[in-house]
Design goal:
It contains three helices and ten strands, in the order ββααββββαββββ. By secondary structure, it is α+β, with helices and mostly antiparallel strands. Mean pLDDT is 83; it is low at 118-127.
């Protein structure tokens, strides 16, 4: 038994007794949801948009356990082991999706966004720019491509426009303190790239 939760941009399933949320990329090819009572309209559309397959329960309604005949020397599976296998398979599918670094411009994801940094730099989704005070006699823009982890921190970085080694290092140090909301693929947090520009100014 579980609860389908539909948020503004994605949906997930909460299963009784489990702490983690389950997103559609973690489900197997034959997995589907059978809501009771059935849902329709916007809720069903949002659930399908998040990657969940919805099916009406066609079997007869009963509180009795369902019994199927075993063929040959087949053994009846222990429910606890079967549940563990399902969880392990789901964890493997999650890991496979999260092993790939996504790009907002080409992948079907909700892009990561920058939160307010410890230095007070405000979010600017258009250019992700912020200013840093410098005492040395140089100024300019250091441009980076960073990888944001599923936890919302900078995981990797690459400088695509340099000012000088000292400014480049300060830019990396600055961005490493920032926090982000991670990108999501049908609700599941995924690592993703983001362009960032640090503007060094003389004061």
């Amino acid at each position: 038994m579980g609860l389908l939760v539909i948020a503004t941009e994605y949906a997930w399933v909460e299963i009784e007794g489990e702490k983690s949320e389950i997103y559609s990329p973690e489900m197997g090819p034959g997995d589907y949801l059978s809501p009771s009572p059935p849902i329709s309209g916007h809720a069903a559309k949002d659930a399908r948009k998040s990657g969940f397959e919805l099916r009406a329960e066609t079997a007869f309604a009963t509180d009795l356990p369902r019994v199927r005949a075993l063929s040959g020397d087949a053994d009846c599976r222990d429910p606890q082991n079967a549940t563990l296998e399902v969880k392990q398979a789901r964890a493997l599918r999650r890991a496979a999706v999260q092993a790939r670094i996504c790009r907002a411009e080409v992948d079907d994801i909700v892009a990561a966004s920058m939160l307010k940094s410890d230095q007070g730099a405000a979010t600017n989704r258009a250019g992700n720019r912020t200013g840093v005070k410098m005492e040395k006699q140089f100024e300019g823009n250091v441009a980076l491509i960073i990888v944001i982890s599923t936890e919302g921190t900078m995981q990797q970085w690459k400088i695509v426009r340099s000012v000088n080694p000292e400014a480049d290092k300060k830019a990396v140090d600055e961005v490493s303190r920032w926090k982000f909301t991670p990108a999501r693929k049908k609700g599941l947090p995924v690592p993703s790239t983001m362009p960032v520009e640090i503007n060094f100014k003389l004061y």
